[in-house]
C-alpha cells in the first residue's frame, strides 16, 4: 500500500505580511482537502519568519510573528539568523515560549552547553499507517555573533551527521529544515542520505526541487512570494520512499485570501504604532539628511558611531539613513522608520594601504549609486560614504570625474604601513561590497545594539 504525505513549507518571510493572508487561505484550504481524502499533511517554516524591519516585529520583538505561526498551526519551525542574531539573548529566549509548533534547532545551545528549554534537535512524527518521519532543524553557523549574544552555536554539518546516525532504525523518512543556504544544502545532500532538505537563507527558488544522491533539495524563495510543496509517497509495507516530487506555488497567482488574518495584521500594525510612539526627544529644527551629500544628520550619525565604538576614525554609508527628521517631537517609531536595518556597529583594524583602497572604492559613482537589498541593509541605495577623522582633498580633472589627491587621518597624512582602528557597520564585514573589510583579520562587533539603538541613545541625551 502507498501512503501519500503532503508537505508544505515557507521560508524567509522577513515579516513581509503582504502575502500572508493568501498563504493562510491556501494552506488551510489544502489542509482541509488532504484531510478529507484521509492524507497526512505537514507544514514547516525554515526560519527568518521574523524581521525587525517591520514595525509589528520591532514593537513585539517578534512575538506577534509567533502568534501568526500559531494561527496557521505549523507542525515545526526552525530559526534563521534574523531570529537568532538580531534579537537580544533574553528576547530570543522568550520568543517561542507560547509557540504551538515544535521549535527544532539542533545546533543552538546555551553557554552552559544545554539546549534551550523551548527547543528540540529533532522530532519524530508518526502517520496513521505507521510511517515514522524524523524532522531535524539547523541554522546558519554565525559563531562569533552567537557567542557575543551569549549563545553557543555548533557546526551544523557535525550535528546533522550525528543525528542522522542516531535516527537509524527509528525513522523511515528524514526531513531537514535547513536555514544554511543552497550551497550547504547541496553539500549535506551529498553527505547525509537525508530524504528531503527544505532550505532557506539564500532565498533560492527550486521550482521542481533538485535531486542529489536521492536527496530532494527544496527552496521557496523569500518574502512569501512562494509556498513550497513536496508530495511524498511511501510504501507502508516496506516503509520505503517510492517517490518524492517538489514544486513551488507562486502567491501572485492565488486569488483568495483570509480576510480574518488581514484584519489581524491591520490590528497588530496599529498596536505596534502605539508601542513605538514613545517620545524620546524634541528637535528645535529639521534634521536634514541627503544620500549623496554630507548633512547634519549624517554627521551626527558618524560622530555617534565613532564615540560609541571608540575608533580612531569612522565611516558609514549615508544610505543607512532613509530620510530627514522633522522639527518637533521624535519617537521610537520615527527612528525605526528612518533606520530599520538589523545592522550592528563594529570596529575593524586595517593598514593605511588597505584603508586607501576602500576609500577609493567608496568614492566611485558606481558604489554611491549602488542599489541592493541584503546583508541586513533595508534601504534603497548605498549613498555617499560619510567619515569622521578622514579628510579627503579631491580635484576634478578633464574627464569630469573627481580624483582624490590626498587623504588625511585626523589632520595627519595617511600612513600606508600603520594599522588604524576604524568604526563602521557589520554589513561591510560580510558579502562582496568591500572584500578588504570582509577579509580583515581583526574585527570587534557590538551586540545586541543596532545602529538605531545608537541613535535613540543619542537623541535621549540631547
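-> sequence recovered:
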Amino acid at each position: 500500500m502507498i501512503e501519500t504525505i503532503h508537505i508544505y513549507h515557507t521560508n524567509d518571510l522577513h515579516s513581509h505580511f503582504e502575502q500572508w493572508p493568501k498563504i493562510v487561505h491556501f494552506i488551510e484550504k489544502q489542509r482541509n482537502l488532504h484531510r478529507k481524502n484521509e492524507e497526512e499533511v505537514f507544514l514547516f517554516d525554515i526560519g527568518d519568519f521574523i524581521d525587525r524591519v517591520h514595525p509589528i516585529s520591532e514593537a513585539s520583538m517578534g512575538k506577534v510573528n509567533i502568534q501568526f505561526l500559531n494561527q496557521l498551526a505549523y507542525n515545526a519551525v526552525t530559526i534563521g539568523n534574523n531570529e537568532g542574531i538580531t534579537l537580544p539573548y533574553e528576547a530570543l529566549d522568550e520568543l517561542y515560549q507560547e509557540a504551538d509548533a515544535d521549535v527544532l534547532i539542533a545546533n543552538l545551545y546555551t553557554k552552559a552547553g544545554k539546549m534551550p528549554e523551548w527547543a528540540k534537535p529533532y522530532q519524530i512524527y508518526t502517520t496513521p499507517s505507521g510511517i515514522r518521519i524524523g524532522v531535524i532543524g539547523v541554522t546558519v553557523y554565525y559563531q562569533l555573533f552567537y557567542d557575543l549574544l551569549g549563545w553557543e552555536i555548533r557546526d551544523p554539518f557535525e550535528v546533522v551527521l550525528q543525528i542522522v546516525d542516531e535516527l537509524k532504525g527509528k525513522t523511515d523518512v528524514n526531513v531537514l529544515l535547513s536555514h544554511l543556504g543552497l550551497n550547504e544544502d547541496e553539500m549535506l545532500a551529498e553527505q547525509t542520505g537525508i530524504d528531503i532538505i527544505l532550505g532557506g537563507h539564500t532565498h533560492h527558488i527550486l521550482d521542481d526541487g533538485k535531486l542529489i544522491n536521492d536527496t530532494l533539495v527544496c527552496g521557496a524563495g523569500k518574502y512569501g512570494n512562494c509556498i513550497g510543496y513536496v508530495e511524498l509517497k511511501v510504501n507502508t509495507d516496506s516503509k520505503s520512499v517510492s517517490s518524492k516530487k517538489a514544486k513551488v506555488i507562486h502567491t501572485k497567482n492565488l486569488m483568495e485570501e483570509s480576510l480574518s488574518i488581514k484584519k489581524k495584521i491591520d490590528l497588530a500594525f496599529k498596536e505596534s504604532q502605539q508601542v513605538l510612539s514613545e517620545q524620546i526627544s524634541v528637535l528645535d529644527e529639521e534634521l536634514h539628511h541627503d544620500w549623496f551629500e554630507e548633512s547634519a544628520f549624517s554627521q551626527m550619525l558618524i560622530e555617534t558611531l565613532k564615540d560609541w565604538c571608540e575608533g580612531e576614525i569612522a565611516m558609514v554609508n549615508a544610505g543607512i539613513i532613509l530620510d530627514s527628521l522633522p522639527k518637533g517631537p521624535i519617537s521610537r517609531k520615527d527612528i525605526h522608520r528612518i533606520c530599520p536595518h538589523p545592522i550592528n556597529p563594529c570596529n575593524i583594524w586595517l593598514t593605511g594601504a588597505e584603508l586607501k583602497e576602500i576609500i577609493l572604492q567608496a568614492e566611485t559613482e558606481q558604489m554611491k549609486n549602488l542599489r541592493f537589498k541584503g546583508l541586513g541593509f533595508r534601504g534603497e541605495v548605498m549613498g555617499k560614504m560619510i567619515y569622521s577623522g578622514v579628510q579627503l582633498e579631491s580635484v576634478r580633472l578633464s574627464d569630469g570625474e573627481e580624483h582624490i589627491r590626498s587623504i588625511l587621518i585626523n589632520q595627519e597624512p595617511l600612513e600606508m604601513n600603520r594599522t588604524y582602528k576604524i568604526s563602521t557597520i557589520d554589513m561591510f564585514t560580510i558579502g562582496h561590497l568591500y572584500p578588504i573589510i570582509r577579509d580583515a583579520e581583526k574585527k570587534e562587533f557590538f551586540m545586541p545594539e543596532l545602529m538605531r539603538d545608537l541613535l535613540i541613545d543619542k537623541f535621549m541625551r540631547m
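The mean pLDDT is 96.
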